[in-house]
Amino acid sequence: MANFIGVFLRSLEYGSFYALSALSIILVYKTSYTTNFAQATLGMFNTFLVATLVMRQGWSLYAAIPIGIVSAVILGVLIDIVIIRRATKAGPVGKQIITLGLISVFLGLTPIIFGVDNLSLPRFVSSGTLTIMGTPFSYNALFNILFGIFIMLTMFATIQKTKIGLAIRTTASNETTARIMGVPTKTVTMAAWAVAIVLSMISGLMTAPYSSVSLTFMNDVQITAFLATVVGGFATFHGPVIAAYGISVLLNIFQVYMPSGTIWGKPLLYAVLLLIMYFKPYGIFGKQRLKKV
Amino acid sequence: MKKIIKNPYSHFILLGLVLLTLPYLAEAGAIRNSTVTVIGTTIIYTIAALGLNVLLGFSGLISLGTAGFMGLAAYISAYVTETMALPFEVAVMAAIGIPTLLGILVGILSLKFEGIYLGIATLVVAEILREIFINVTPFTGGATGALAGRPVLAGTFQLNRIQTYYLIVVVMVLIFILIHNLTKGHLGRALNAMRGSEAAAQAMGVNIFKYRLIAFGIATVLAAVSGVLYVHYVGLSYPTTWNLMLSLDFLAIIVVGGFRSIFGTFIGSFIIFAMSELFLKPIPALANITPLVKGILIIIFILYYPNGLANIKHQVSHWLVRRKGKRDAFGQTKAEKKNLTRAEVRENDTV
């Protein structure tokens, strides 16, 4: 039982990494109508910035994070103004390929700016463990879980209850109508990109202490987040987030309780998700968009 | 004579002949030996990208699993020739057959998915394959990779590096001709109709199920052929090669080269793979900026040149016509009109 609680809490912690990334993907999808493949790479770039400030310049982590957030916002605004806004002629596949181009650009830029060595990043809460029902558990993990849930709830409250959220929802449902109604859709899209990159960076900062800050350290998180968005469906904001936590729980259960689960847990999970996708092709929470011929 | 020049087959064969001369140029010292190797690898990537172009360009179905299928074929071919010590021909058949069956299975799954859902479903398949490459060490050699020798044709002819290069060029020309024929015929029209509107295509009697399977089949066969050639040309295969980035590179090739164009695929592949290897990597100061240049190229092409480099032929001819002067309904250019007398203009107006 104690073991199970440990597994469950770890799933929740990893779930927040995935959920933050999934929320980042769905925000961009809803406002720019493209799946942002560069989500992980942009998160990686800003995590590198924070890690460089901490490891090379000797800054404290908490002083470096605001700089990272500012850089993420600037990056989001720039990407929207310079590239996404001009891509009106490109179709959905064309826009996806633009984000693939962004991956390449930032994979090229990162070693030039921050050097080729992998960096390591300290945890948010550096030390201390508490015991929950006989399971040792670090304060950092607890912080990750709570902070992840806090960000989710803040985002959902903003989207559902505030005027800004209304603007996001109208832009998401129909951009042309929203513009006619006086919603500044361009600003909404720009803000969505900025917030999405900040979310990716937070996901990166949380993941980094468990591995090292390298060019590819976010890739696994990104693939799981994409699965979460597909399984949860692109139709809602909450679907992908719930799916992200669910996938994380499933993955940990497969890895711990299955024989040779550490090796075959992930492929089995992928196969199960593929099966779910087959029977629910528009996601568990999604609905089919009907189109006229 | 004009017929031969206009014949697309002769274009493909000419391209093949030009590529065949490269090893001689290398021997004569005009180009480096490594250049030939880079061009050979580029041709291999062209073949896989062409398969994706049939799938994405003609039928509008996206796949992010190309690298996975290519890797599967590479590992099967290496396993059959090295561990099982069976002839090269058997390896080719197994390495093309098994991934193709899997590809057709994905095609059956694909009937349920649309757009990006399909992209991610194929990505999941590729990720499962990649986990297999990493973890089934008896079959793939795990992280240390699988080794394979150069092909031995008919059990007797052991090819060396340059002969393998010839084999690759010949296979490329054959595939170009085959794909040209397929896409110019009934199949091409059916796939085009499907891309425009599935419902309309169905109403016109196009069997969506059948043609989706065929499109996926072609894409996987070409990915598999390219995987087999890769492992026997490069000599080894690591699990890290067959990741999402490679599948994305194939997409980039099609975008830069042009949808639905065979030559475009070749040019795109040359720009994405060969150009950085040949021109940027030898210069130390520029070696690091390769991915940066690649990314900027992709973005610029999508934004300002969405039809790809294959479109350049039409643009040049269009530009030539414009330079000569546009002719109006009376066959007169603007320059000629300026010289008209008032009476002549009136005559034009009354016609």
Structural summary, described in words:
The complex is a heterodimer of chains A (293) and B (351). The mean pLDDT of chain A is 85. Helices cover 71% and strands 3% of the residues of chain A. With 293 residues, chain A is an all-alpha fold. Chain A starts with a helix and ends in a 14-residue tail after the last helix. In chain A, helix 1 packs across helix 9, helix 2 packs antiparallel against helix 3 and helix 2 runs parallel beside helix 4. Chain A is globular. The relative contact order of chain A is 0.18. In chain B, the strands form two sheets. Chain B has a two-stranded antiparallel ribbon with strand order 1-4. By secondary structure, chain B is mainly α. In chain B, helix 2 runs antiparallel to helix 9. The longest helix of chain B has 27 residues. Chain B is built from 19 helices and four strands. Chain B has a single domain, classed as ABC transporter involved in vitamin B12 uptake, BtuC, CATH 1.10.3470. In chain B, strand 2 and strand 3 form a beta hairpin. The mean pLDDT of chain B is 83. The chains are: A mainly alpha (293), B mainly alpha (351). The interface between A and B is large, with 46 and 45 residues. Chain B: Keywords: Cell membrane, Membrane, Transmembrane, Transmembrane helix. Chain B: InterPro entries: ABC_transp_permease, LivM-like.
